[in-house]
From TrEMBL:
The lineage of its organism: Eukaryota, Metazoa, Chordata, Craniata, Vertebrata. Belongs to the steroid 5-alpha reductase family. Polyprenal reductase subfamily. It is a multi-pass membrane protein. Its EC number is 1.3.1.22, 1.3.1.94. This is Polyprenal reductase. Coiled coil: none annotated. It is found in: Endoplasmic reticulum membrane.
Amino acid sequence: MECTHHQTSMPCSYSSKDINEKPFLCSHRWFTHFYVVSVLWNGFLLICLFRAEFLGESLPLWIRDMHHALGKDSQSKDMDSEHFSALLVLLLLWLHSCRRLAECLWTSVFSSGVIHIMQYCFGLGYYIAVGSTVLCQVPTNVRNGKRLSVQICWYHIIGVMMYIWASLHQHRCLAILANLRKSRSGKVVSLSHSVPFGDWFESVSCPHYFAELLIYVSMAITLGIHNVTWWCVVIYVLFNQALAAVLCHEFYQKNFSSYPKHRKAFIPLVF
């Protein structure tokens, strides 16, 4: 189990028996709720933005009010590129949430651990806020009835390719973790922790955390690299995942005497 809201492999200090003793704990399996909320919420935002960009409809009033409060209601010189970048990133974010939800339902094997209710609430709020952050990167006077002229730029191509590459590796690593607790027939036979091998696990203890960071970096690139707001999101993900990786790395080293000494915690060859 882990103590952050992104992935599902790091040991934590709570166990399932604590639920009865401490009323503010909830099952680790509730991580799935984060992705349910993310799929629904970001899907809704994606539909709103798509209809505004391609059908010339207005964004909902509350979204326009939010943009106005954040000073995002003015036109920019490269408006078509900005709008398409935001639409593309919102699509990538939604696809990421769909994949993670599918992995929670059909791939991952959750331990019997629990998380604090405050972590749970923060996780729900995070996935609502991150999609709203993407939408707030676009001026709200959405085209004045004009439809979006799609302009694919070099950073869109690089960002999407990096997103696909990181997503594939993250899925492979999560499958490796899940298979440690399954038999060859796919039946869950254990909830204990074992040392994973294969793919990026040969270099770091938590490659799925590293892949999560790369996914957010790929979205920053897709937004045009210069978007300061999204880079703040990336920095948050960096510290969040790095902390989880360090704790997980220390757990492996403490509990497995033969744990590979060349493995780093988070970033290959670096950290």
